[in-house]
Amino acid sequence: MKRANAVELRDQIERAGKTLHDDVAPLLAGAGLQLQLLRMDHPNAAAQVSEILITLEDAMDRIRKLSQQLAPSPFTPRGS
């Protein structure tokens, strides 16, 4: 029984990692692209948009690391 629970928990953790990678990361990347376009279209807001982009990039880095911890890719070298 405990082994089944451990396997189920591991599956849930992997699904969470894959959701971060497959669903959340692309949404954040899309938001980043939209912000870059906004910065180009509205130069007066460039400084504020750049600050938001820095925060967004930090969030994306954290999502990327967490996703790799929860559901490591066979293509990601160990220790990355």
Model description:
With 80 residues, the protein is mainly alpha-helical. It has one domain. Helix content is 81%, strand content 0%. Helix 1 packs antiparallel against helix 2. The model has no long low-confidence stretch (mean pLDDT 91).
Write the layout of secondary structure elements.
Elements: H1 2-41, H2 46-70
Helix pairs in contact: 1-2
Q: Which geometry do the CA atoms define?
A: elongated
Helix content: over 70%
Alpha plus pi helix count = 2
The total strand number stands at 0
Percentage of β-strand residues: under 5%
* Mean pLDDT reading: 91
Low-confidence stretches are none
**Count of discrete structural domains:** 1
Question: What distance separates the N and C termini?
Answer: 34 Å
Tell me the structural class.
Answer: mainly alpha
Give the quaternary arrangement of the chains. single chain
Radius of gyration, whole Å:
17 Å
* SSE succession: HH
Main beta sheet strand tally, sense and closure: none
